[in-house]
Amino acid sequence: MIKGFKFPKKVSFRTRLFMVMIGMLLIAGLLILGTTTIQYESQRENYHLGRLARKEKQIQTHVDYLAQKNGLMDKPYEIWQKYSSDFEKINSIHNVQYSLFTLKGDPLFIYHSPLEVVANNYKLNQELLSKIKNSNNSAYIEHYKSDIDNFHASYKILKDRFGQPYAILFFPYFEDVSISENELNTFIENLYQIYVLLLVGVILIAYFLSKFITRSLETIKVRMGEMRLEKKNEKIYLKNATREIDSLVNSYNKMVDDLAESVEKLAKTERQQAWQEMARQVAHEIKNPLTPMRLTIQSFQHRYDPNDPDIKKKVNDFSSLLIQQIDTMSEVAEAFSDFATLPKPNMKECDLVELTQMAVNIFDQEHIVFTTDQAHIYHKLDRTQWVRVITNLVQNALQSVHKNKTPHIGIQLRTEPNQTILTITDNGSGIPSEIREKVFEPKFTTKNSGMGLGLGIVKNIIESHNGKISYVSKMKKGTTFTIELPRTVS
Known about the structure:
CATH topology of the domain at 13-180: Beta-Lactamase
Order of helices and strands: HHHEEHHEEEHHHEHEEHEEHEE
Strand content: 15-25%
CATH class of the domain at 13-180: Alpha Beta
Structural class: alpha+beta
Number of strands: 12
């Protein structure tokens, strides 16, 4: 199939097969046509360059002979002119036109020159001289193409028998392209005729072949379209089917048997699994607020000082947090009584810094560092659900650290023009690569206890706030969870 080409979604397999066969023939024809044209051009170029070299060699030999015979190697222009008739005879002897220039580019004998040289007062410019002198074997070929001049021009430095240069030979070579073009046109014309016949034949073959192949597939398609869970599905039996079609039919019939068996098992376990799932979620959602409540009470009991001047404020904060967690359990119980998984978010304008700090205060402050780039960051969110997110992630971070290792948990809030980003980093054991795609799945856990719904619920909460949660993890080094919340302009 052609790279980058896509069939429309509703094109049948038969039509695709037909189009592929025709397309392959067309592509093959274009490739052969292109290859033939390139080959012809390459051969034509090599032929003319070889012919140019032979002609140039003949003229060079004749000029060397005259220059050596008359001792003109280092003579001025006037001496060369005395033998102009001898040099002019070269044109008629070899049936060519040529010109001679000094090493400085001044003309000695001009019998033919390109328009560029004529415009330069019959002198070779410095750029052309530089190309000639820097070329391999002191020979340089240039192609002149215009309305008047269209030929290959060969410039070569002539040397005496001691290897000393004495002049520059210019030789134009005019190609006769009519013969090669006629040959190429004739070949392409014959190729077109052959491919028209092949195209007609392939169209007929493709039509009947695609019809034969897809007849059995059409039967399978109809039966698969009629397949239903709630009814008994019929098997397919075909005569004279090919090995591939027979294998496909056997796979379909096995699928019918497996489906019937699965439906029977599903009917027996569906109600039981539904109640088990409900029980797991209720147990987890009730247990989830109890953990921060227990930690809050232990922390308050540990830090309680009746002589503290701020004891009244701390008691009020303590009471507010407990009431908030109790409300959470009440909301969850009420939601599950109505067969809902979670209460809908109660979106209010909240200070994200204050709310996050409140959730962090539940845990041991020695192991947690909370930083923020602003004193106040306001967002519309559900206070109860946000506290649940923080406590769940921090609790998971603490539990990921081995008991023989001191935990270090970093929580950072930072703002960007369009979003607020919260990161929670731990120095735990990390998440193995083979289970990283499952950490947000309900009922998935690597712990010995718990229902494994925590991170799944965290993800649902974040997505209900139009946010995103992701993580990166390195084995034996730790994990970083990142939450991105979009900022709304009020």
